Input
Amino acid sequence: MKDRQNSTAAVPIMDAAAVQRALRRIAHEIIERNPDLHSLVLAGIPSRGVEIEQRIAEFIRTIEKIDIATGVIDVAMHRDDVGTRPELPMVRESKLPLPLEGQTVVIVDDVLFTGRTARAAMDAISSFGRPARIQLAALIDRGHRELPIRPDYIGKNLPTRPDEKVRLRLEQTDGEPDAVFLEKQ
Amino acid sequence: MTARWTRKDLLGLRDLSAEEINFILETADAFKQVGTREIKKVPALRGKTMVNFFVEPSTRTRISFELAALRLSADVINISAATSSLTKGETLKDTGRNIEALHTDILVLRHSSAGAPQFLASRLNASVINAGDGAHEHPTQALLDLYTIREKRGKIAGLRVAIIGDILFSRVARSNIFGLTKLGARVTLVGPSTLIPREFEELGVTVSHKIDQVLSDADVVNLLRIQHERQRKEYFPGIGEYRTLFGLTKERAKMLKPDCLIMHPGPINRGVEIDSEVADGRQSVILDQVSNGLAVRMAVLYLCGGIAT
Output
């Protein structure tokens, strides 16, 4: 009843167990697609993409007994909307294990939406070197792409309206139990 | 940190909160990393135009801003006093309006009059960055000093910082005092009484006229250049006398703690405010300041120039 009185209602989509199952499956798919895990680099987009990347790396470690390389790729300097925002968020330092030549880099993000962040991440990665290939993983794909970008690994496909919001909470970054909500206006 | 950047201009550190100063320093960490990439250029300000407008001579600050803008993919135009129409009697306001009529997005201004950047910032849509105005402020110099201290010592709060030399005429000193005190450092100003007016004590700093009493406790010593161009003769007896009383000679440097940082904004007068052996010694971070200046100026241009105006 309370939700109905508010202008926004949060619909639970995934709980902690569902999030873990989805990330474990992504880890299995990454292993399946990339026979040489020694030339694999996970690159998380701050801040929740980095946490998701750490969890996928942990699953791969458990399953394959191998430590895969991880890094951070911040996209703020590579966005395509310079001069359009009245306030700017913090830029984070990017760190990737170098050199990238011959490596497969998997970009890890929390929610895939327009594809502009993924494009900026590819641009950012190319300033560090020329990897053999770049793949894309996201916990949620909510659709509404504005660029010709297609993910390689998806935790959950979530059909949304453009004005809806996907809210992800992770224990480590938000201090709340893992959960995904869809907020309707 | 959840704070966000909302300013189009950087006029001085007096206006900024500690949170805003830390925001710039943390942003500079990300831009310092860009200098280690295979491709050291990012598209952050692609399509933006920056004018480096230097009414007073400067080499290192101008070049640092220029390189910072190029690394951010902005287009850069340099105008110096000699080539500008200011020498033909044009007012600063008209010069500013002409610069803006060329669709300039960022104006980096070095001016001999205190307040010139504020004057233009309130009249132009472009972002205005103060690159030194008279004896008023030089915010990016102070930010790169803060960045270097934070990088080398891991913190700023609680450190004892001695600023030594020509305080009265120094915009570097003023901006450093604002920045350091806001971030919790304990600042002591050292120099001839003629070059440190008592009013500076109202800014929350200690004043000393005896360098030997300050050196052994300091975590950082920041030596300022004697500004011959702003000096009249009567402020101190002479260069030799100044070195004897306030110079960081190699003998005096032995009094410093082994981890004390030696800083200087440049250009250094070797054998006046600092001996060559000290400027080139193990504790000197003078060249780190230059490198960090690039990262700090990239951060400032990105933040002020990247915002919607």
Notes: DSSP finds ten helices and nine strands in chain B. Chain B touches chain A through 35 residues (CB under 8 Å). Residues 52 and 78 of chain B are 5 Å apart (CA to CA).
